[in-house]
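dude i think i finally got it to work??
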Amino acid sequence: MVKENFVEMFQNSFRENWDLEAYTDYETKYTMTYAQVAEQVEKLHLLFQQCGIERNDKVGLIGRNCAHWAVAYVATVTYGAVIVPILQDFRPDNVHHILKHSDSKLLFTADYIWDHLDENELGNVRAVVSLTKFKPLAVIESALPIVDEETGIRLTLTKELISNETIQQLFDRKYKGNFTPQCINYYLKDNEEMASLNYTSGTTGFSKGVMTSGRALASNAVFGHNTYSGSSPTGKMLYKGDRMVTFLPLAHAYGCAFDFLGNTTAGGHTYFITRVPTPKVLLAAFAEVKPTLILSVPLIIEKIYRKQIQPMIAKPPVSWVLKVPYLNEVVLNQIRQKLMGVFGGCFEEIIVGGSAMNAEVESFFRKLKFPITIGYGMTETAPLISYTYWSQFKSTSCGQVLGNMEVRITDKNKEGVGEIEVRGDNVMMGYYKNEEATRAAFTKDGWLRTGDLGYVDEDGFIYIKGRSKTMMLGSNGQNIYPEELEDKLNNMPYVMESLVVQRNEKIVALVFPDIDACDKAGFTHEDVLAQMEQVRKDVNKQLAAYEQINFIEVQAHEFEKTPKNSIKRYMYK
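look at this
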C-alpha cells in the first residue's frame, strides 16, 4: 500500500521547489514558477469558497493542455473536491451529460468550448470559469442554491463575487503580501477517498465514470519517482528539474499520471503543447526543450518510422549495406544517432502506451538499440499495470507487472491465453452511479477484469493478444485476434490503417489507403483496388488457413478515433 498522501505530495513539492519553473505553455512561452502556481491555487480555493463548493463536490475541467488546466486540477484536488477531467474532443451533448451525471457544481473551460455549450444543459453547475485568466464566464441561476452553513441564509452567487478583482482582494486581506511556502497547508484528504472522476473515451459506446482514489493517483506518481531507470542521475524515472513535453491529452489517465502529476510532484518542469500536436510541432518542441523523458502513443512513433525511416532504409544502397555483417552496425548506429537528435537528444527513454505498437516498428527499434519501451495500463488503473526499463524490455511484451499490482490469467485456452485480471493499489473504486457496470468489471473475489486477452511469462512480463470483445471464432472454433491481422496489414505498402471484422463467418478487412503514397504512384481508383487485392494475397501468405482474409473493403475516409487515437471499433461492423 502506498504510504504517500496524494494531496501532501503537492504540498511538499510547492514548498520544496518554490523558485523553480513548473509550467510553460510552449507556444506563448507563458511560464509559472511553483510559487506562482501555489498562489493561483490559493486564489482558486477562495473562489471555491465564494461558490459554496464543499469537499467531495465535483468540479468539471475541459480544454486543451495548458498551464491553467494544470492549475485548475491541482486547486481542485488540494481543496478536497473531486476533479472531473473531460476530453476536449467530446461533443457538446456528451459534455452536458457528463456534467449532469457527475453532479459537477463548477466548470473550468476553454472559451472556444464554452461557445458551443448550452447554459441550460449544465445540471447543477453554479458557475463557469474561463481557463484563460480564470475570469467568470457565467453564473447559472437555475443551479442549486448556495446556503451559508453557519447562518442558514440563502446566498445569491454573482459574477462579481468570483471576479478576479474580488478574489485578489480576499487574497490580499488573508496574506497581507506575505504568501510564503509556510502558508501552504492543504486539507490532507484520505487516500481512500475519490480524487478524480474520469470518463472513459468510450471505444465500445457511451463513456463511464471511473472513480479514482487518491491512493491510485499517488501510487502511479510514486512509481515514477522511485523507479530505477538506468543512467538517470538520481536513478529515477522522474526527478527534480526534469523537462517534459506534454502532448498527450491530460484528461486521459496516461498523460495525466506522468507528464503532469508525476512531474509536478517531483519538482519537474512541464511544457504544454497548447495546439494540435502534429509531428512538425512536436519535433520543433523536442529540439528546443530537449526533454529528459518522453511519453507517447504508438501512432506518433509509427508515423515517424513510416515517413522518415522506412523510405531511407528501403533505398538500394542502405538496404544492401544492412544485409552485410559489421557494415550494418555502422549504418544502424548512424540511424540511431539521427533519431536520438529528432527527439532532442537528452531523453532517458521513450515510454509508449495507450494501445499496441506495430510489431515491425518495435522490432526495428530493438535492432537499432533505441531507448524505447512499452507499458500497459487502462483508465481503470490510473493507468499503469506494467512497465520495464528499455534495456531490460522483452520483445513483443508490454513490460513487467508492477510491484504494487498483481496479475492473473483466467479461462486459458490451449495456447495458455486467457483474460488478464488485475488487483492492487492502482485499481479504481468502481464506476460512478453504475453498480451494474461495477459488478461486471470485478470478479467475485475482487479482481478487475481488463477485457484484454494475453498471457504472463515466468518473469512477470505481460503479452497481449487482443481484446476479449473483439476476438473472433474461426469455422472450426479457432481463436482469431483481429489486432494481429491488422498489425500485418498496416505494414503493407499503400496501407495507412485497417480494421478487421467478421461477417457471416467471413473475415473482412476494412482498409484506409495511404492517400499520399497512392497519389505519388499515380494510382487510379482501379489501381488502388488492385493494390489492395495484392495486399490481401500477400498478408494471407503470413496467416494460418483459419484466419485468411476473404475480402478487403477500401474506406474513403480515416476511421473515427478516440482522443488517444484508438479506432472506435463499435462504429464499424
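The first strand starts at residue 21 and ends at 25.
im so relieved honestly
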